[in-house]
Amino acid sequence: MDWIMAAIDTTTEGIEPVCGRLYALGITGTEIEDAADFNDFLENDTKYWDYIDESLLYKKTAPTRVKVYLTDDEHGRAQLSAIRQSMAELKALDEEGRFGTLDANLTNMKEQDWAENWKQYYKPLKVGDKILIKPEWEPLADDEGRTVFHINPGMSFGTGTHESTQLCIESLEKHIAAGDNVLDLGCGSGILSIIALLLGAKSALAVDIDPNAVKIAKENAARNGIGADAYTAIAADILSDEAARRQVSAQQYDVVLANIVADVIIALAPFAKAVTKPGGTFITSGIILARKDDVRAALEAAGFTIQSICDKREWCSVTAIN
């Protein structure tokens, strides 16, 4: 299958509202390119300068973009039309021009091209104190005693390279316990809930609005030796699908994960409160620093107690206890 890559020109400040609107359209797989993040890496991680491929240095001055990948068929073109309409609406609301042009630049991609791009740039990555994320095509001589998560991200993002995912993993390491059951809201590639199982959780239910994400999450679970008895993934919009809400809330969970965007986390807070066990943990991320207090207030209003707030560059994670 061929694909259309739509790269939406925005700003660092515009990333969250753009991603929020994409999520509302059922598009949860996004790739974020932000020169601010890359330049921060160059300034603060000087020991790695010798290992930076010269082909990546364009990122120092590259525009900030949110990329999405759509199937090159009638469904994908309908999604593209909806994206353009939503970006036009956002631009009309942005009277001060803080979110950039919001233009969507298109590139046609062959399936093979996509696979080769991942193989070229995606390498094993250490996250937190315990996790090593390894793309399936990369050899690994030494896991250094870490728990290895094997991934083929396909068309669904959640690879561990983004700060929001790393923050969630670091919080998971602190809060997951043997035998826990986990709920992953907005699972993407399934990385968080699968890692929870690798760290000792007993079962996980993963939910995403994008059926393609659910398919890839199931594949990644199998890739890591996790069977259907421990891992369930469903395609649903928890905010609007009553049948899905009933299915998910049939039990309570020791750990609930939501690595999405601030507005969706805020909307999910009462539901998350209802499905988190007393004493259980709600780990949220995908939050830009400017929205940290909004998320904190929403979680406290829902009845959670804030346990910790951690940040990396422009992103933060809020962990709360029920």
From TrEMBL:
Q: Which GO terms describe its biological process?
A: methylation
Domain of life, per UniProt, equals: Bacteria
Q: Which organism is it from?
A: Candidatus Aphodoplasma excrementigallinarum
What does this protein's UniProt record list under function?
A: Methylates ribosomal protein L11.
Signal sequence range:
none
Keyword match S-adenosyl-L-methionine: yes
Instruction: Write out the GO MF terms.
Output: protein methyltransferase activity
- Provide the protein name: Ribosomal protein L11 methyltransferase
Gene name, Swiss-Prot/TrEMBL: prmA
